[in-house]
Every structure is written in structure tokens, then in C-alpha cells.
């Protein structure tokens, strides 16, 4: 509301006042930043009727106006009463409406049937039925009006207390549920629109009557067939095309005071930042002008709300990249919508909006009552112009300038064109020390004089691979010993793993029982060499001596990953079993023998409970290529072909096997 008021060219001597009803506790919890936006009159809460105990939030509307006029004497002659879910599009001047004392401009609400039935006679029987249709049917005792009220200050002073009184009366009327026309009230309930009847009956009692103005206020859902609206009321669900809809009731938990960062991923569940962005005006179809104009007004509604949010955030939130990027897009949409609407209204506005325009022109009203005729009989009075006379300038230029300034503050120093130095290679010497501006001495240095360089020794930047050391000076003596070699952590870890694996392999090469193997593996993990008990070693030696002739031409082999990989032959294995030391293992690495890998640690865990005490299973000697080695040499395609051959062969054998099983035997019964 405040954002649109500033941009709708309202009279210069006018001012906007918010009237807020709240309890003392609600006032303490209220955000003080929102009070600073606009002049605010804080009134007590009227939501609970102290006489009847009825809680009805709409009591606050007549109560707020009554309390404001009771404590404040506004200097303006004419008052415009609006709801908070509205925004202004065009200025309100009394001469546009031919406004006079005792008459009020308002929107038509024809569903208020209670002004012309038993409800009116129950509450204002003393009011004579009306004999006009300016704001309802013949015979009514009150006017069917609501939404906004544009009336004289003195008239509102008389209406306000009666507005509150009759609201309470209709609310407590036991028959009002069936007489008001409220389609949501149940039998015996209290109508929600009681406040609207309270105003209609109170105005009638104060002898203030109304004239319908069907074009001033518009809902985004309605087709603007009566003219160009000055006021938009977004109190109902509306849609733009087939893929966008909006209802203010979906956003009760929306908090406009929350600063970035905002979570805007889910448009349907936003609780801060901005409302879901409507489609661009350029995407609308123009085949139906009224429908096109209606959608433009709906887009303008969302664009105005989001622009107002950004106006608040720019003034109350610290600079942030998200704030700049989001609000730039918001202002872009807002200005684009206004451009499209200005173009549409320039052509739509050149027509007559009253059936008596021609008659009034003949009587000279185009010159006698120029403002009113320009507003309602533009075509007849030849007031059409390409540049619409009353279209307000609502650009966001000043806000975009604030965004640009904010963006510049967020821009890194290295990317700031105003402070970025010339591009080039990094200096070899350290840059001069930067002294904060407030600590610098008051000295004027010309731009073309470079500051003196400081001789500061700096260490070279770290490199991935250290360069060779430079030769020492001639005068310096040579070093006593070469510098120690740099051992990386990776090399130490690899050698440690290699040693552990070698010790574990040794455990399985020895002819030990399962318990001894477990002890040996445990010692190997700790990096210790396992000492074989004398008895076990003697038995193992005897067995190996007996098996030595048989294994003369066989191979026993192992592989160690990483550095220090070793291989050995079967003959060396016998000697190694007799003297298991690191020297023998190192010498064995000179012989090239094919090896088979196995998971050494898992081997000790595969022994069953019933095999405790038995010797571990050792691979049998292999003569010639093994199946494992042959399969290991196959690449992916060869393995796939082999697999397909096996599957095809299996499928070919299945019918034959099934046929053999179905073969009829003698004596078998067949069907």
C-alpha cells in the first residue's frame, strides 16, 4: 500500500495513515521496523465485544476508524478508507467524482440482500425506502456498498460510531444468518459480513448515501469492462493462464522482515523473500483484449507486491548477492508490466464510460466540468491522447540505483574497475604494506610517484617438487655431509604394509597348525616376526625334507604389492623354511616365477570349527597353466563371448533333458 501510494501521483497535500488495532501484548511483540514505514495510529483491539463476549476480528475496522477520528482531527477534507490488501494505481481527486457532502463513492456489492428485506426493517425501520438505483434496488433502506469509501471528513465522523454500533447489532441478531445472504454461515450462526451491514445501516442512519463506482476498484479475477481501475483488491484467488495462481490466504506465515539468505526453491512454500514470480507480460495472448488486460492487471498485482518487498529489503537489510540478483529481476518485471499496461490503457482509455456523455457535451459540460468529463467521457470530449494524462510514472529508477550501489559494495576489490590496477605479472618483491585509511598520515602523494619499496626478505612460494639446491657461495666451506633424503609419508606407509604382508605370507608358508598360524598372523599385523616353537619347527622340517625330492620341479610362489616385490622357486623355499630370515627373502626376489595371489588374512578365517589343530590348506603344486590363470588372461569381450556360449549350450540341452523325462514307459497311462 505504501509503495503504491508513493508511485500513484496522489495529491501533494495528502498523506497516508495506517490504523492498527492490537492488544498491549501484541503491541510489544510487533516489529518496530514496520512502524517506521508509514505514519501509524495504534488503536486498542476491538476484536472481542466486551458486552457479549463475541470474538469477531472485523470489529476492528469500524473500531479503528472511530478511535482514529476520536483522537485525531485530520486536516484533509476528503478521506479514502481502504483495506490493507489493496494497492493504488491512480490518484483520487474529489473533482474526478463530482464529490459533495452527504455522498460517498464506493464499490458495488449486490449480494447484500439484507438492505432490502426483513433485516433492514429489524434494525433501521425509521429509514424511508430509497426511490433510486444509485447504489442498489428500489425500496432499499441501505446501500449495497463496500470495499473502499471516498467521503468527506465530517460525514465519516458521523458514520464511524454508528458503523460500530450496527455491526454489533447485526452480529447478535439471531435471524441474521438467514437474512444477510452470507453463503458461508450455518443455521443459527453469526455472519462474517455483519460489518458490511453495520456500515450500510450506520451510513443510512447518518444520512450519507452512495453512488456506485464500478470501475474504480477491481479484483484481479474480474474482467475490467467498466473502465480503467484506480485501485486493485487482491482478496480473492486469481489465475494467470493455466500454470499460475495466487491467493493471499496461502501466505499467512509470510514474514516480509526476514533478510537474505532466502530459500526460494519451492515457490508454493515461501515464507520470506518474495512471492512466486508471475509470467512475463510478453507471454500473454492478445486475441481477447479484455482478457489480455485482465491478465496484465493480475501480473501487475504480483509485480507491485514483490517490488514493495524489495523496497523494504533494500532499506532494512545488509547488502547481499541474493538481494541484488532477486530484486533486479523483480524490478525488471515490474517496469515491463507497467510498460505493457500503459500501452494497453492508452488505447482502452479513449472511450466513453457513461451513457450520457453525448448529452452532457451538448450542454457544455466538456468545458464546464473538464476534470469529470476527461475522466468519464474522454472520447466524446476529444480528450484522447497517445500519452495518457493520468498514467502515473511508477518506475523504480531510484531503487535500481540503490541496488547498483549495493552491488558495487559487494564487488571484490580485484574486480572493481575503479580500484583495479594494471594487469601484469606478480612483482618479485613484496607489495607495500597497506595502512588503513583512518591511520594514514595526512600526506599528499602525486599519482605519478610510486611509493618506496620495502626491502623485505621473503621465502619463495612452496612448490610441488622442490628444485635442486643452489650451489653454495665460493667463500663458504662445503657441507660436512650431504643433506638427509626426504622421506615422504607415503613411502613409509608402503614399506610398512609391504613388511607386514611379507610376514603374513611367511606364516602361511610354514607348516603350522591353525592356532600357530593365527598367532603368526597376529604378530605380522604388529610388524613382528613370529618365532616358531621348536617342536613345531622340527616336525615341519622333517616333512619338508621328505617332500623336497617330489617338489624338485614344482613351483611355489608369492607376490607382494608395492615396493620390494619378491619371487622365489620351490628349491629356495626349502632353505627358507629352515632359516626364515629377511636376507633369504630379499635374495629370493631375483628369480622370476609366475605367482598366484590370495587373500592371506581371509584364509585363516575360513577354517571350520572341526578343523582346529589341523594343518592349513596349502595350494597343491601346479604343473602347466591353471584354469585360474587361463580365465585371468581373458579380456572383457572374450569373457562375454564365453559366457554366451555356455548359456546357449545350456538352453540347447534343456529341451532334450525334458524330452527324456517325458519318455513313455510300458504300462504308463497316457491322455
From TrEMBL:
Start-end of Basic and acidic residues biased regions: 546-560
Keyword Endoplasmic reticulum recorded: no
Entries under Gene3D superfamilies matching the protein: 1.10.10.1940
Keywords, alphabetical: Glycosyltransferase, Membrane, Transferase, Transmembrane, Transmembrane helix
Signal peptide: none
Transmembrane segments: 637-658
Membrane topology type: Single-pass membrane protein
Segments of this protein annotated with the region Disordered: 409-494, 546-573
InterPro entries registered for this protein in UniProt: HPAT-like, HPAT/SRGT1-like, ShKT_dom
Protein name, UniProt field: ShKT domain-containing protein
Organism annotation: Chlamydomonas schloesseri
Lineage start: Eukaryota, Viridiplantae, Chlorophyta, core chlorophytes, Chlorophyceae
Amino acid at each position: 500500500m505504501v509503495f503504491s501510494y508513493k508511485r500513484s501521483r496522489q495529491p501533494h497535500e495528502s498523506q497516508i495513515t495506517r490504523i492498527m488495532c492490537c492488544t498491549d501484548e501484541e503491541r510489544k511483540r510487533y516489529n518496530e521496523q514496520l512502524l517506521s514505514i508509514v505514519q501509524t495510529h495504534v488503536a486498542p483491539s476491538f476484536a472481542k465485544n466486551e458486552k457479549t463476549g463475541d470474538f469477531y476480528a472485523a470489529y476492528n475496522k469500524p473500531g479503528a476508524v472511530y478511535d482514529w477520528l476520536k483522537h485525531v482531527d485530520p486536516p484533509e477534507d476528503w478521506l479514502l478508507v481502504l483495506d490493507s490488501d489493496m494497492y493504488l494505481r491512480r490518484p483520487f481527486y474529489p473533482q474526478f467524482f463530482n464529490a459533495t457532502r452527504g455522498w460517498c463513492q464506493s464499490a458495488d456489492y449486490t449480494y447484500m440482500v439484507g438492505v432490502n428485506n426483513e433485516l433492514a426493517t429489524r434494525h433501521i425501520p425509521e429509514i424511508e425506502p430509497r426511490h433510486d438505483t444509485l447504489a442498489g434496488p428500489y425500496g432499499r433502506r441501505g446501500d449495497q456498498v463496500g470495499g473502499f469509501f471516498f467521503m468527506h471528513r465530517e460525514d465519516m465522523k458521523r458514520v464511524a460510531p454508528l458503523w460500530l454500533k450496527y455491526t454489533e447489532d447485526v452480529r447478535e441478531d439471531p435471524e441474521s444468518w438467514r437474512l444477510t445472504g452470507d453463503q458461508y454461515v450455518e443455521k443459527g450462526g453469526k455472519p462474517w459480513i455483519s460489518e458490511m451491514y453495520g456500515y450500510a445501516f450506520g451510513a443510512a442512519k447518518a444520512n450519507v448515501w452512495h453512488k456506485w463506482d464500478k470501475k474504480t476498484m477491481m479484483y484481479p479475477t474480474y474482467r475490467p469492462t467498466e473502465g480503467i481501475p484506480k485501485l486493485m483488491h487482491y482478496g480473492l484467488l486469481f489465475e494467470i493462464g493455466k500454470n499460475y495462481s495466487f491467493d493471499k490466504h496461502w501466505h499467512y506465515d509470510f514474514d516480509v522482515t526476514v533478510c537474505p539468505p532466502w530459500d526460494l526453491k519451492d515457490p508454493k512454500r515461501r515464507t520470506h523473500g518474495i512471492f512466486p514470480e508471475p509470467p512475463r507480460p510478453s507471454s500473454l495472448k492478445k486475441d481477447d483484449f479484455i482478457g489480455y488486460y485482465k491478465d496484465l492487471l493480475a501480473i501487475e498485482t504480483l509485480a507491485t507486491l514483490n517490488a514493495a518487498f524489495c523496497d523494504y529489503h533494500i532499506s532494512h537489510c545488509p547488502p547481499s548477492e541474493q538481494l541484488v540478483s532477486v530484486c533486479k529481476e523483480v524490478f525488471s518485471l515490474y517496469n515491463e508490466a507497467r510498460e505493457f499496461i500503459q500501452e494497453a490503457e492508452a488505447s482502452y482509455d479513449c472511450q466513453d464510460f457513461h451513457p450520457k456523455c453525448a448529452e452532457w457535451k451538448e450542454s457544455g459540460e466538456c468545458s464546464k466540468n473538464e476534470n469529470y468529463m476527461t475522466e468519464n467521457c474522454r472520447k466524446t470530449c476529444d480528450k484522447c491522447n497517445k500519452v495518457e494524462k493520468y498514467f502515473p510514472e511508477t518506475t523504480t529508477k531510484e531503487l535500481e540505483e540503490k541496488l547498483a550501489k549495493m552491488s558495487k559494495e559487494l564487488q571484490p576489490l580485484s574486480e572493481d574497475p575503479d580500484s583495479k590496477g594494471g594487469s601484469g605479472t606478480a612483482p618479485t618483491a613484496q607489495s607495500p604494506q597497506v595502512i588503513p585509511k583512518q591511520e594514514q598520515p595526512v600526506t599528499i602523494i602525486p599519482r605519478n610517484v610510486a611509493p618506496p619499496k620495502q626491502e623485505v626478505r621473503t621465502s619463495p612460494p612452496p612448490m610441488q617438487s622442490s628444485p635442486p639446491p643452489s650451489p653454495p657461495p665460493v667463500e663458504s666451506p662445503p657441507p660436512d655431509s650431504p643433506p638427509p633424503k626426504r622421506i615422504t609419508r607415503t613411502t613409509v606407509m608402503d614399506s610398512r604394509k609391504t613388511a607386514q604382508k611379507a610376514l603374513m605370507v611367511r606364516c602361511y608358508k610354514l607348516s603350522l597348525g591353525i592356532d600357530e598360524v593365527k598367532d603368526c598372523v597376529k604378530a605380522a599385523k604388529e610388524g613382528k616376526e613370529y618365532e616358531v616353537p621348536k617342536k613345531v619347527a622340527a616336525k615341519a622340517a622333517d616333512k619338508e625334507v621328505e617332500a623336497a625330492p617330489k617338489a624338485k620341479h614344482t613351483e611355489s610362489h608369492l607376490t607382494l604389492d608395492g615396493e620390494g616385490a619378491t619371487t622365489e622357486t620351490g628349491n629356495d623355499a626349502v632353505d627358507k623354511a629352515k632359516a626364515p630370515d629377511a636376507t633369504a627373502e630379499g635374495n629370493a626376489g631375483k628369480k622370476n616365477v609366475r605367482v598366484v595371489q590370495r587373500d592371506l588374512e581371509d584364509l585363516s578365517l575360513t577354517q571350520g570349527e572341526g578343523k582346529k589343530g589341523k594343518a592349513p590348506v596349502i595350494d597343491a603344486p601346479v604343473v602347466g597353466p591353471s584354469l585360474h590363470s587361463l580365465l585371468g588372461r581373458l579380456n572383457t569381450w572374450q569373457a562375454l563371448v564365453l559366457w554366451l556360449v555356455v548359456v546357449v549350450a545350456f538352453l540347447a540341452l534343456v529341451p532334450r533333458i525334458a524330452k527324456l523325462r517325458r519318455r513313455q514307459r510300458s504300462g504308463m497311462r497316457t491322455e
